[in-house]
Amino acid sequence: MTDNNTNKNKYSITRYPKTRNQSLKAWSAADEYLLTEFDSLNLEKPTIAIFNDRFGFLSCHLHPFSPTVILNYKSQEKAIFQNLESNDLKFSELNFITPLESLPEQLDLAILKIPKSMDLFRMQLFQLSKSLSENSIVLTSFMTKYFSPQMLSIANEFFEEVEQSKAWKKSRVLILKNRKQKKDISMLHSIEFQDFNYQQYFGVFSAKNIDYASQFFIQNLKLDESDQRILDLASGNGVLSKAVQLQNPSGEVHLMDDSLLAIESSKLNLNSENVFFHLSDSMEVFEDDFFDLVISNPPFHFEHETNIEVAIQLFSEVKRCLKDGGRFELVASQHLNFKTHLIKIFKEVNVISENNKFIIYECF
Ligand SMILES: C[S@@+](CC[C@H](N)C(=O)[O-])C[C@H]1O[C@@H](n2cnc3c(N)ncnc32)[C@H](O)[C@@H]1O
Fold first, then answer.
1. Region class of 308: left (phi > 0), else alpha (psi between -120 and 50), else beta
2. Is 355:342 a contact under the CB 8 Å cutoff?
3. Contact of 127 with 153, CB cutoff 8 Å
4. Residue 223 lies in a domain
5. Residue 270 resides in a domain
6. Count of domains in the chain?
7. Is the pTM of this model over 0.70?
8. Ligand 1: distance of its center to the CA of 105 in Å?
9. Which residue range(s) make up the domain with 258?
10. Which CATH number goes with the domain that contains 115?
11. Alpha carbon distances (Å) from 180 to 41, 120, 241
12. What's the pLDDT tens digit per position in 104-146?
């Protein structure tokens, strides 16, 4: 295979948020391979949709075609905007939509880096199958170490032809053609927990059950009377906020998450006048000295990456947003050893409860 078309080094692409881990990159061979396959199609002025472009590698290189870019995360939006700007590309020439908005009609091509969540992949192919024309093509790619046979079975569910490329730099492309006419599928999971039926969109954290760390946290959650304004940081489907509401129905509850599908899921599960939803990857959206209590089951997995830098950055932002006398409670896996980081940020860090897997800290 030769690389003689789209110049894959044309733009300088960096990560947002920045990382000190040199092994984490802003794109992979799976992204480059998509561009190579795109070139070989030789399409004239195609209308394109791009999915799961985490930092903007694909959006920048395909910018001349004014693609529609589906944004799953606030941090993804910031990363793409940052990379477009630093490469002197106008973001007004791209069409940004959320994963729940309709795709443009008459797409010629969709370019999709396969996400870790097979449910999300299924939801994206379902959405595509509804708006592609018969001759449209979908290029999807993955690093071979992340291959799952489900990728093929899901692709076969929505497309008559599923062709697999040769491996290149440990990545592969699946070329999907001839979409099938599909009946509607549900894009929501239901999870029964403590007499409530939680709804969450495909791709949102912990699809099969309420996360065991969150369950342990809920068993040990005790609100004080002074806990009137509370933040559920990295709120997912809103299960921790629901537990807060049960103890203090008149309290003001804020939910913040980086994922649009998580925030939209939590809106299905919490519905009251005292609840506020924030699609954000950073606590910059809150004033100083704002909360009596912040609770969290913080993130440390991002697609196939494990990274605690984001959580540690959030912890230091929590400190700024806590009122005098306010506190931060979080649950985490024991192996993350968050205490070493928390004691550098907070004056006092105590253990509320722990078992062989999880630990709950209280920080002042
Ligand atoms: C471990 S899950 C917890 C979800 C939910 N609180 C629960 O207990 O089921 C972590 C959540 O953090 C979100 N997240 C990742 N990075 C974030 C960031 N920078 N700011 C806010 N939320 C983030 C993810 O989308 C995910 O929903």
1. alpha
2. no
3. no
4. yes
5. yes
6. 2
7. yes
8. 32
9. 189-363
10. 3.40.50.150
11. 21, 19, 41
12. 988 999 999 999 999 999 999 999 998 898 899 999 999 999 9
